[in-house]
Amino acid sequence: MSISDVIKGLLAMSGKKQAELTSVLGMSSNQAVNNKIRKNSWFASDLLKVAELCGCKLAFVMPDGQCIYLSDDEQEEK
């Protein structure tokens, strides 16, 4: 499953629209987000914004269950 598929699933599960994602990513059009989805072209900062929009946390999960949560330091300072 691609990252784009996961993002589409998260949007659906959280009841969010692609237009909301466009706004959160600071893009000017849905076409720009469509291109990211089609090309599966995501930065870590994009994934953090998707997680925040969907009410999720982004994490690395170790085999023993330990989690390292990623966060946007700039957002935490606000």
What does this structure look like?
This is XRE family transcriptional regulator. The chain is mainly α. 58% of the residues lie in helices and 10% in strands. The chain starts with a helix and ends with a helix. The model has no long low-confidence stretch (mean pLDDT 92).
CATH architecture: Orthogonal Bundle
Count of domains? 1
What is the global morphology?
Answer: globular
- Count of DSSP strands: 2
Beta percentage is 5-15%
Please state the CA-atom Rg, rounded to the nearest Å.
13 Å
* Helix-strand string: HHHHEEH
Individual helix count: 5
List the strand order in the largest sheet.
Answer: 1-2
Mean pLDDT: 92
In the CATH hierarchy, the third-tier topology is known as 434 Repressor (Amino-terminal Domain)
CATH class: Mainly Alpha
**Low-pLDDT windows of residues:** none
Structural class: mainly alpha
Report on the biggest sheet. 2 strands, antiparallel
User: In percent, how helical is the residue content?
Assistant: 55-70%
End-to-end separation in angstroms reads 34 Å
